[in-house]
Each structure stands twice: as structure tokens, then as C-alpha cells.
Amino acid sequence: MPKTPSIFGGACIIASVCVGAGMLGLPTSGAGAWTIWSALAICLTMIVMTLSGWLLLEAYKHYDIRASFSTVTKDMLGNTVNIINNLAVYFVGGILLYAYTTASGNILDGLTSEFISFGEYGGRIWSVIFVLFFSFFVWHSTRIVDRISVLLVLCMAITFALTISSLAANINLSTLFDMQNPDGNYSVYAIGMLPVALTSFGYHHSVSTMRAYYGEERKAKYAILGGTLIAISLYLLWLICIFGNLPREQFGPVIASDGNLDVLLNALGNVIESHSVKQVINAFSIAAILSSFIGVGLGVFDYLADLFKFDNSKVGRAKSWAVTFLPPLTLSLLFPLGFLKAIGYAGAVATIWTCIIPVLLARKSRQMKSDNPFTVCGGNALLLFILLFGICTALFHFLAMFNLLPVFQG
Fold first, then answer.
1. What Pfam families is this protein classified in (predicted)?
2. Pairing with 9, which of 43, 246, 259, 263 sits 20 to 30 Å away (CA)?
3. What is the mean pLDDT of the chain?
4. In the chain, how many domains are there?
5. For 166, which DSSP code?
6. Domain span including residue 124
7. Does residue 53 sit within a domain?
8. Between the CA of residue 147 and those of 136, 153, 295, 391, what are the distances in Å?
9. CATH code of the domain covering residue 223
10. Helix (H) / strand (E) containing 163
11. pTM for the whole structure
């Protein structure tokens, strides 16, 4: 009799999908809300994202154990809605590749400027080098991506642990709770953090994989919960360590650059005396970006290969590589938006497949008869809450973009 997969193993899969370069944008997006309100915003997002994943499981119970997100959406909601959903998934993947490409170029330019200087175009030249070199792994095969990803996750785990332990030892409680500014207004900035927080819990395309992995909904439900709990624990630990070391007012230059990671790392480096700690933080940031770049790149690569019916030959994979990596790279070179702004766009559009579509699928599912009793509690009130959360999160991003919401400037 085959051994049943552990809940912890599935939780780690979900956590690895969530945790990546997106978490690097959390401190800057939460600088206005600061520690307590940022924590509340992330916790609320985690709860909603966990429940919306469970709603997908509820809809999937009517289908074969290996049915995909796209298959179920197309059958329940029609081809038009499925096309919109797939385009939203592709857009988020594309904008994330764009963000990682831009961020990696700026960080590498800063790290190598003492040895190699490309002048004012340094960041863009390093972006090109980064994409051409690391996208080769995606073009070569999924197998090599698998092996590289294991190394990157291991590197990210080690450097994250070293970063956290180093920063935690220097946490200043006065800085962490902004005690030098007792009359500060924090709550009004919390809603502006939601799009970035939502991006950090975008595991929903893996829900069908979890269901197939366990062969049932109940264990998949607990694996999803375990994964989001691991993710939020790491996010809160990261925020506490950053906010405990870098004073709130020093986020001004980072925010002015639209959250560019090289500016954040420089600001953090200025308040940390140890050169080795600075190097570890840089190593963690690069490992997180590279891990996410390869993971997201492979997902978009496979999606576009299927969409355009490119075969798996070297020529076919070259075509898939071109449509996957060249558009984000070109846009990054021509219109280099800040990291935080790009992540915000991803979060706004991701509300379609993380909130709105799961609600519509669950509502449709409850109109169908099934012998499977798996149902998410909360009734229509829960569906309405998740739907409104998704719509408001997207709305908050665009309102902030046009300066119609309070925006913290540092």
C-alpha cells in the first residue's frame, strides 16, 4: 500500500510557491503602516487567501482528481471567463518577470560597480546579462530547473536564516514601534499594502496540484493552511527584523524610487555596521529574486508553449523562450518601473484568480449536486467578503496610483 503524503510536505510546497522575491517588497509597502498595522494587513490577507484556496477545492470536488484550474473554470463559468482568467494569470507572471529583471539589474550593478562599471546604463546591461544567462536553464529543460531550484531554495533558506539571526540581534524596540513618533498616523496607510501582500500569497494555481497529490480535498485543505501559516511566519519575522533596524523616516528614498530593491538594500546597509551581514542580505535578495525568476519563468514558459502549440524540440523551446522572456526584458529596458509599483500591478490583477474566480466557482459549485460533503463554512457571507476584499484590493492600488489615497512619503 503506497504511503500517504504528509501534510507537512504539502505545506512546504505551498509555502515555497508563496515565499520568494515578492516578500522583499513588503517592508517598503508597509513603511507607512509600520509594524502593527502592517502585521494586521498581512494577517488579514493570509486568512482571505487561505479561504479562497479552499473555495477552489470545493469547486474541484465535482471533477476528476487531476482536473486543472483552467479546465474547471472553462466548464463552470464558460470560455470567455476562462480566457480572462488565463490572461490574468499570464499578466501576473509577465509583470513579475519584468519586476525581477529590473530589480536584478540594479542590484548586480550596485554590487559590481567597484570592479565593473557600465555607467548610467549599468542596471540595464546587467538585466540583459541576468536574463540571457539564467533563462537558459528554463530553455534547456524542466529537469535542470528542478535541480537549480533545489540549490536556490537551499541557498535562500541558509541566507535568510543568517540574515534574520543577524538583524534580530540588533533590533531596537524604539525603532520597531516608532516610539520617537508617538502621534504618528499608521492605520490610513495599511490598505495601500494589500496589493503587495496579496501577491505574496499567490499559490492558487497549485491548488489542483495539491488535490491530485493527496487524492482528496480534506488533506489538501490542511496543507494549504499549513503553507500559508509558514509563509506568514516568515513574512512577519522579516518585517520585524527590517522595521527593528531601519527607522521609518529612512524609507523616504526607497519609496521615492518606487521601492527599488537596490535602494532598500543600500538604506539597510547604512544602518548595519557589519560588512558580512550586508553581504548576506545581498546574497539572500539575489537568491530570492533568482529562485522566483526561474520558477515564474518556467510557469509562463509552459503556459505559452501550450497556448501557441510550440513543440518540445530545441526550435520549439526557443520560440517559447522568446515569447516568455523577451517582452518583459524589452519593457524593463525601455520603461523601468520601480519594483514596488510592478508588484502592486501584479497584486491588483491577481485578485481576479485569487478572489473573484474562486468565489464564482464556489457559488456555481453549490448549485450542483455532489456526494462529496467537502464545503467551506461561512455561506454566502464568506463569498461576499472575499469578493469585496478582491475588488477593494485592486481598487486601492489604482486609487493610490492616482494619489487618491494617503501615500506615505517617508
1. Trp_Tyr_perm
2. 43
3. 90
4. 1
5. H
6. 7-401
7. yes
8. 14, 10, 12, 38
9. 1.20.1740.10
10. helix 142-168
11. 0.91
